[in-house]
């Protein structure tokens, strides 16, 4: 037998264990062990007796002599003899300590230095395995080896060859040397085994084969009940026995971890077994085994992998050491003793880039933070690739187990659990581990250990912990789930005995009971037992870092897509392509994953392969159809832990969400269902499919999960039965309003998400949503008031942005013509809107909404039509088109259209007036109305003459038609004439009495408007439209009024405007309006105050009658008619100059004034009314005295004499005393003034002559005496 041996030399040195437990007075805020240099540290060195010259050998497996050299080489592992320098790794646990002064360490840290572990390289062993596999592959390709896959869980490799029997032995040896193969291979223990300091000899592979055969004879597969898991074998059995370690005969597997293709197994005798996965066929192979300590058999309690820094923390006994990954060579960065447990922050775990491993969060600056539970405290350390440094200690002595989650940790002593705040250093006591034992001060530690139960802690969900507690190991126990507030958050999980190991694979808790061979699985949701597994041997369960993935056809069948609805806008082959693409996608991502392992010496390593979550959830929903509340809670829990960052996680989350949504809608829990259907994760077309009656408006081809298609159709059937009143259950019938309300809220809610959804998918979704929204509101039939109609119209305007034409068609099909009009307007299709509106006006089509909106008022309808035309058309052609239609159908509103000041185009007014003239009967005064708008509102002053003629014609027509009106006018005038003097002017009298006496208000209004319009026109104002009329407005009016004498004051105004003042005074005196006659004689004005019932006309008259708009009197006297409020009572004063308009009266004006006054006086004399004569003589200057002009005294006396002669002889003298005295005094004053001026002038003349003569004499004297 060939044997290769390598010896290794190992130096002796004083190595020690590093105790970072710290004293109780250690500062929690200490960042490093070397916080201050002045503190003295206690360094205790525990020396181990180490043989400096110990040489250890490792023998390779015995091989048959007839094996080829290549095969021998592949089965032999050369383990190099490496020297490991001994050192004290103090720099690992302190950041700024002095290398040469260990005493500078923190005084609160007790450090014991242990010897470092030597390492045997495994690289050559790995190379040997690779060469062996290459050789095997070559032989398989040549047909020398055939592989029979007879079992999915376990594959035995049978070898056949046509080689000689000599090579057969060699091949059998090669097969047997593949120890630790997974579910495909049975491997023996003959691989090279690494120990600390020496290599174990490789046993005879035949012996190992016999051992395995013996195991197979007595070992049976686990008995598994139906439930959420199946078991997949990764490693058939674990070779824990080692001839070098006597204690290993009864050794057990105590810990396990996995990363990528590596599985690391720890045993109770301190060995670390490293398995490596060769490929899917061969599986896992044992490539190395090494002892943690050569002299002691400390069990490997825990293996914590830190792949982000290529390190592993191994807890053996109470010693924590660091190794390199993946080969588990010592990292030489120190060890920590008195450690009972270690935990990373579970909330910091995340998937690596390949989504195949859970790794702890790594900070390049601070490394990875680990929580150590030690005898004295809870210790936080920072692990980097080259150091372990203390962060701080928390005062929590005797901690033996714990799990950290962010700022909290669930920790345990031997007797109870606590929730520890890692930031504030506070704890919340929870409950004892064992209810049968309460430790007292008199109890010793050994007694406590015997009676106390081992605390088991495992994280649950996102903020919870599962804690085990009981009485004794054999009695029933339970699992309590608490949150980070210390409250019990779920129900209690019952166990028949206290578990020996425990994990959570959400939503299940997996526990190994005290017997060690019975595994029970409970649901965390309802705490019911879901499955039981019975094994032949003792086993444990553990959750590892690696995530094992397996393909599963059930998932693919469950989440593949099928067509739910297609209205034909998408071709069938396009939908098939979409389904095919999705199937290809899910076939790559729909693997079943698990990181939960079951392991034992005889059972090997098996994976808990979960029943696919979606399969399990669908089955759960089907079995608990009558208990929807429980199902919903379970499904919600599943959503919370779904990983939406992966493609499959997103599909899984969508599936569960859709399932919840369907259950809630089917159960009519609309309040809860709303959030699921509105959050944007579900295709809203699915719910539209359920609620809509006509699926032809579902666009884009609706695909859904094939396994849920039937459930969707069942829910649709139920909802449609409620909506169509096809259900007999009275309770469900009452839900109809709730169904409609939910559907409306759903549609409206989705309309506000338009900005989120882009691309083709968003386009087809909102096409469907828009049409569905319109259809749902139409089906409601609740348009009973204007508010509801407006809301529906506004809703369509706001939300229908894509399906505009389809929406119009739907509105027309449902006879919602008025809403269609408004929507046409919104779309800018004004012609369509007006045409539809006109049909509604003429009752060619009927719509109740139209009548409701306009309260069945035709005037409101026509006003709305005019407003719409004015606002939406800017071309003359369209205005004429609709205007001519209105002239024939509704002529009154045609005038409003043509006369609107809001028109956006110019309309030929002459053409409009000609069109109005063609109307056979203008009983409504359309032309008058149009002219009034032109003049008053549009300030087209050139048409004022036509307006006056139309008003006068209208008045005369009313007089002819109404005899009562004629009588009323005659009565009103006769009453005025018999009024006693003094009396008001006729315009004021008319203002008060016209509305009392004349019942025809329209006539009064026309009269007032006409008087006001006449007051502002000029004498030359023309008629410009009617060729048959006299061109001059005033003369035309005069001729018409002379025929009808019932309007005397109107005739007076016209005569006045024509300039016939004398005739005007005669008419006023005949009317007995003497005050107006005197005013005209004195000021050339006629007072006018007529009420304007139309504020627009009133404003127009005031604007054109304003003093700044008047012309000078001397230029155009007939422009000087003002309203009564501008007429000033004329009173003769001695020193007062008589003015009119804008200046002093000229000579001609003064003469006219005297003439008009004398004309008034003559009328008074003819009436022989002493009061009128007295008032006139005492208040008016019949002739003028001008101080600035020389007047003939004789002429003045002559005028005075004429006035006196006109006064009746019987007129009392005292009544004219004032007239006589004033005028005589004035004449005398004028005479005296003339004499005085004459005398002064004569005296001044004499003075000037004297001065002249004196000057002349002075000059003559100067010339006479001038020197030569």
Tally of helical segments: 40
For the secondary structure, the number of strands is 39
Spatial sequence of strands, sheet with the most strands? 5-32-31-30-29
Report the sheet-strand fraction: 15-25%
Average pLDDT number:
76
Structural class: alpha+beta
End-to-end Cα distance, whole Å, is 184 Å
**Uncertain ranges:** 1-130, 139-217, 1106-1144
Radius of gyration: 60 Å
Q: What shape does the CA trace take?
A: elongated
Give your account of this protein's structure.
Among the domains are: 303-399, no CATH class; 553-589 and 612-753, no CATH class; 876-939, no CATH class; 940-1091, no CATH class. The strands form 12 sheets. The chain has a 5-stranded antiparallel β-sheet, with no helix packed on it. A 4-stranded antiparallel β-sheet has the order 6-36-35-33. The protein has a 4-stranded antiparallel β-sheet with strand order 7-8-9-10, with helices on one face. It is elongated, with a radius of gyration of 60 Å. It is built from 40 helices and 39 strands. The protein has 1268 residues and is an alpha+beta fold. The longest helix is centred in the last third of the chain and has 48 residues, at 1217-1264. Mean pLDDT is 76; it is low at 1-130, 139-217 and 1106-1144. Residues 1-209 are annotated as: Disordered. Residues 98-116 have a biased composition (Low complexity). One of its GO terms (biological process) is endosomal vesicle fusion. Residues 250-548 form the CNH domain.
């Amino acid at each position: 037998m060939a044997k290769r041996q390598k010896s290794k030399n190992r130096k002796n040195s004083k190595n020690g264990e590093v105790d970072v437990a710290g004293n109780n007075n250690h500062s929690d805020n200490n960042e490093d062990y070397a916080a201050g240099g002045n503190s003295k540290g206690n360094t205790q060195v525990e020396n181990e007796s180490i043989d400096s010259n110990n040489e250890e050998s490792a023998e390779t497996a015995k091989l048959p002599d007839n094996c080829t050299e290549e095969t021998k080489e592949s089965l032999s592992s050369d383990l190099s003899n490496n020297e490991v320098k001994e050192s004290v790794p103090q720099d690992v646990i302190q950041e700024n300590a002095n290398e040469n002064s260990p005493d500078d360490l923190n005084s609160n840290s007790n450090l014991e230095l242990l010897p470092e572990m030597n390492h045997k390289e495994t690289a050559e062993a790995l190379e040997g395995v690779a060469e062996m596999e290459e050789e095997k592959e070559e032989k398989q390709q040549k047909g020398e080896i055939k592989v029979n896959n007879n079992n999915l869980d376990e594959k035995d490799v049978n070898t056949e060859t046509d080689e000689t029997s000599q090579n057969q032995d060699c091949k059998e040896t090669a097969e047997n040397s593949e120890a630790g193969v997974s579910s495909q291979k049975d491997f023996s223990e003959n691989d090279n085994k690494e120990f600390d300091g020496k290599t174990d000899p490789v046993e005879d592979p035949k012996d190992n084969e016999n051992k395995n055969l013996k195991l197979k004879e007595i070992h049976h597969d686990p008995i598994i009940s139906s439930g959420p898991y199946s078991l997949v074998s990764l490693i058939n059995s674990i070779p824990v026995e080692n001839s070098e370690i006597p204690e290993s005969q009864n050794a057990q597997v105590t810990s396990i971890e996995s990363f990528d293709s590596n599985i690391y197994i720890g045993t109770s005798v301190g060995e670390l077994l490293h398995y490596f996965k060769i490929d899917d066929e061969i599986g896992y192979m044992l490539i190395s085994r090494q002892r943690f300590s050569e002299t002691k058999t400390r069990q490997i309690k825990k293996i914590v992998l830190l792949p982000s820094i290529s390190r592993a923390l191994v807890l053996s006994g109470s010693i924590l050491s660091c190794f390199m990954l993946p080969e588990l060579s010592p990292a030489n960065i120190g060890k920590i003793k008195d450690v009972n447990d270690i935990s990373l922050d579970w909330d910091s775990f995340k998937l690596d880039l390949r989504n195949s491993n859970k790794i702890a969060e790594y900070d390049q600056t601070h490394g990875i933070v680990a929580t150590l539970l030690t005898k004295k405290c809870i210790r936080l350390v920072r692990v980097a690739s080259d150091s372990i440094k203390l962060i701080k200690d928390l005062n929590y002595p005797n901690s033996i187990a714990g799990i950290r989650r962010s700022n909290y940790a669930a920790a345990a002593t031997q007797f109870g659990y606590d929730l520890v705040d890692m930031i504030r250093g506070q704890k919340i006591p929870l409950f004892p581990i064992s209810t049968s034992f309460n430790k007292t001060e008199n109890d010793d530690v050994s007694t406590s250990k015997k009676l106390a139960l081992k605390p088991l802690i495992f994280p649950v969900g996102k903020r919870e912990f599962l804690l085990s507690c009981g009485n004794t190991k054999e009695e029933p126990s339970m699992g309590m789930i608490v949150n980070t507030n210390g409250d019990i958050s779920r129900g209690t999980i019952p166990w028949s005995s206290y578990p020996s190991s425990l994990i959570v694979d959400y939503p299940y808790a997996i526990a190994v009971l005290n017997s060690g061979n019975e595994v029970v699985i409970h649901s965390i949701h309802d705490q019911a037992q879901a499955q039981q597994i019975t094994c032949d041997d003792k086993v444990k369960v553990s959750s590892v870092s690696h995530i094992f993935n397996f393909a599963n056809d059930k998932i693919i069948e469950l989440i593949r897509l099928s067509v739910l609805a297609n209205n034909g806008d998408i071709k069938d082959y396009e939908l098939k392509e979409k389904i095919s693409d999705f199937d290809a996608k899910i076939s790559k991502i729909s693997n079943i994953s698990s990181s939960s392992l079951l392991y034992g010496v005889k059972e090997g390593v098996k994976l808990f392969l979960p029943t696919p979550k979606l399969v399990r959830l669908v089955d759960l929903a089907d079995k608990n159809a009558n208990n929807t509340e429980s199902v919903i809670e379970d499904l919600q829990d599943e959503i919370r832990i779904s990983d939406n960052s992966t493609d499959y996680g997103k599909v899984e989350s969508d599936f569960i969400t859709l399932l919840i949504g369907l259950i809630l809608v089917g159960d009519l829990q609309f309040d809860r269902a709303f959030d699921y259907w509105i959050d944007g994760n579900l295709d809203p077309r699915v719910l539209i499919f359920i609620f809509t009656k006509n699926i032809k408006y579902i666009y884009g081809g609706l695909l859904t999960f094939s396994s849920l298609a039937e459930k969707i159709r069942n829910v649709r059937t139920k909802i449609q039965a409620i909506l169509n009143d096809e259900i007999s259950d009275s309770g469900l019938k009452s839900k109809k309003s709730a169904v409609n309300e939910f559907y409306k809220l759903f549609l409206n809610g989705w309309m506000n998400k338009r900005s989120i959804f882009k691309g083709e998918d968003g386009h087809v979704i909102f096409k469907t949503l828009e049409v569905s929204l319109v259809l749902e509101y139409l089906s409601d039939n609740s348009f009973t008031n204007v508010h509801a109609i407006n809301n529906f119209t506004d809703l369509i305007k706001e939300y229908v942005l894509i399906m505009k034409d389809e929406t119009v068609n739907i509105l027309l099909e449902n006879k919602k013509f008025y809403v269609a009009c408004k929507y046409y307007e919104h779309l800018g299709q004004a012609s369509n809107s007006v045409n539809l509106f006109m049909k509604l006006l003429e009752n060619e089509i009927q719509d109740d909404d139209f009548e409701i909106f306009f309260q069945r008022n035709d005037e409101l309808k026509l006003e709305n039509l005019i407003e719409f035309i004015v606002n939406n058309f800017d071309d003359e052609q369209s205005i004429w088109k609709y205007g001519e239609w209105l002239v024939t159908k509704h002529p009154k509103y045609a005038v409003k259209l043509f006369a609107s000041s809001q028109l956006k185009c110019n309309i030929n007014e002459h053409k409009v007036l000609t069109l109005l003239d063609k109307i056979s009967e203008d009983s409504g005064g359309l032309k008058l109305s149009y002219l009034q708008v032109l003049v008053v509102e549009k300030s087209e002053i050139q048409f004022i003459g036509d307006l006056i003629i139309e008003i006068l014609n209208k008045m005369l027509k009313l007089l002819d038609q109404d005899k009562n009106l004629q009588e009323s006018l005659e009565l009103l005038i006769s009453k005025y004439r018999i009024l006693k003097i003094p009396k008001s002017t006729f315009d004021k009298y008319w203002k008060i009495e016209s509305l009392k006496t004349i019942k025809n208000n329209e006539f009064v209004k026309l009269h007032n408007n006409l008087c006001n319009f006449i007051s502002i026109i000029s004498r030359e104002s023309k008629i410009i439209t009617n060729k048959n009329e006299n061109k001059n407005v005033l003369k035309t009016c005069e001729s018409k009024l002379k025929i009808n004498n019932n309007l005397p004051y109107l005739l007076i105004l016209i005569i006045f405007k024509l300039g016939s003042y004398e005739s005007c005074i005669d008419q006023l005196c005949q009317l007995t309006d003497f005050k107006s006659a005197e005013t005209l004689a004195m000021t050339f004005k006629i007072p006018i105050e007529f009420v304007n019932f139309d504020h627009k006309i009133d404003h127009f008259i005031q604007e054109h009658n304003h003093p700044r708009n008047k012309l000078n009197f001397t230029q155009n006297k007939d422009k000087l008619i003002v309203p009564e409020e501008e007429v000033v009572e004329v009173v003769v004063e001695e020193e007062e100059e008589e003015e009119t308009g804008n200046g002093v009266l000229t000579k001609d004006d003064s003469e006219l004034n005297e003439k008009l006054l004398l004309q008034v006086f003559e009328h008074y004399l003819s009436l022989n009314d002493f009061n009128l004569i007295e008032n006139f003589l005492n208040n008016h200057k019949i002739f003028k005295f001008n101080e600035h002009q020389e007047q003939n005294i004789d002429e003045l006396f002559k005028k005075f004499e004429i006035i006196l002669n006109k006064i009746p002889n019987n007129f009392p003298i005292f009544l004219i005393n004032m007239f006589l005295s004033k005028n005589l005094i004035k004449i005398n004053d004028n005479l005296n003034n003339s004499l005085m001026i004459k005398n002064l002038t004569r005296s001044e003349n004499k003075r000037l002559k004297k001065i002249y003569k004196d000057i002349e004499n002075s000059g003559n004297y100067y010339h006479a005496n001038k020197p030569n």
